[in-house]
Amino acid sequence: MKLPRFSSLYGRIFAVFWLTLLLVVLILLLLPNLDPRTQHTIPQPQQERFQESAASISSQISHDGGSLERKLSRFTDDKRHKGFQLYFTTTDGDVISPRRNSKALRNFITMADSPSHPKQKLYGRWMMAGPFEVRHKDDTLLMYIGRIVREPPPFFIQILDKPFQLLLLTMLVSTPLLLWLAWAISLPARRLQNAAERVAKGEFEADPKLESGSKEFKQAGASFNQMVQAINHMIGGQQRLLSDISHELRSPLTRLRMATALAKRKQGESNELTRIDTEAERLETMIGELLELSRMQVNSHEQREQTDAASLWYDMLEDARFEAEQCGKALSYTTLEEWPLHGNPNLLISALENVVRNAIKYGDDKITIRFTTQAMRLCITVEDNGEGVPDNELGDIFRPFYRVSTARDRSSGGTGLGLAITESAIRQHSGTIKASRSKLGGLKVSITLPLSK
Ligand SMILES: Nc1ncnc2c1ncn2[C@@H]1O[C@H](COP(=O)(O)OP(=O)(O)OP(=O)(O)O)[C@@H](O)[C@H]1O
Ligand SMILES: [Mg+2]
Fold first, then answer.
1. Residue 146, Cα to own-chain centre: how many angstroms?
2. Which one of the listed residues 81, 247, 301, 342 is annotated catalytic?
3. Residue 247 annotated to the active site
4. Which of 5, 39, 390, 404 is the most buried (most CB within 10 A)?
5. How do residues 135-168 score in pLDDT, each as one tens digit?
6. Whole-angstrom Cα distance, residue 409 to residue 36?
7. Could you tell me the domains of the chain?
8. Looking at the CA of 382, which ligand is closest?
């Protein structure tokens, strides 16, 4: 048979199983020796004392005159009330004295008849011991001793006699063992779960601890780490590509704008040249934002820190309130407390700022921002009383460059990257973002973020 290696999970369970089995077998083998109700040898000091008594009785009856039975009756006169009784038999097992004897004695005599190997056994409360040799002239007699055991039977005997309590004790003893086993077996699974949660939060970092423990989990951990590294590599590559493209596009754009400026100077203003310039400017802004977005994503993990809601957003909200006032709009927000958050401060600030700025831009004259906490999550809602977004486009506004059909024609609109940046930032911080219709008539954006411990 090929034995499983102990480094594997299967092997460990196998080992624990066999150890437990061995323990049970050992206990079962030992039990009969410990149970006083089964026949077993007498402890040495006690055996010596009994043998001394047998010798002294031998010398007393050898000197005295009279019949043997009468002589013996001196020792066997009913002393049961004192919790002690001697019995004498012939070597053939016939009881000589006392006349009245018990079932226990008769049973014991048939089992213990060799004075060279005296035994003892418990019958109810009576402990029978013997036989011990007593000499009477040329005859040999056997002496048995019965005495009451006053101390209560050992704990395990009491338990063995009560199956329900035995079951309870077994459960009591085995529960911590099983709990430990369950804990030890699930430890690597929990590590893997924590690592998966970290990845879900956007932390693509390999964890060397995953590659320890039993063989199965070691392999799973190694595969997991490989996957994380591969994803990390892929994301990094993509982000770098985006960042490089944006960067590279900037130089020809700048040259284009310089060329239009030169053309304007040579040929004077024309509608076409102005149009080229405006579009080039728009492209430049877009590329600038794109560059900003990719820069944020590339380094977002390295710049995570412990902060709180108030220090993140208070200044931004005050600025926004001032800006809204300038446009004749009223912006109000509920109290901002120091709820703990863990993340990249710049990303978190611009995430909310983009939503608030949209509300100011697209709202008519009223913007409300509400902060609440619920079950270790911070919930933020931003509402305005503008036109809102058609229901069938609510899910699309988080896509990069997406602009609602009515806004597309508006010359005043932005690039359509603001909400994409917000969505990406919130997702990287294990949060959620959702757009819906506000009771005020405009758009309602609801954000939730996990609070850190
Ligand atoms: N509060 C709002 N009310 C109505 N429409 C909105 C609101 N917020 C966003 N939108 C719509 O969603 C689109 C996408 O918003 P997003 O913030 O991504 O881009 P943007 O505001 O147009 O440009 P920018 O990149 O400068 O923010 C907007 O063009 C607009 O049509
Ligand atoms: Mg915007």
1. 59
2. 247
3. yes
4. 404
5. 877 788 888 888 887 777 667 667 767 778 778 8
6. 100
7. 37-152 (3.30.450.210), 186-302 (1.10.287.130), 306-450 (3.30.565.10)
8. 1
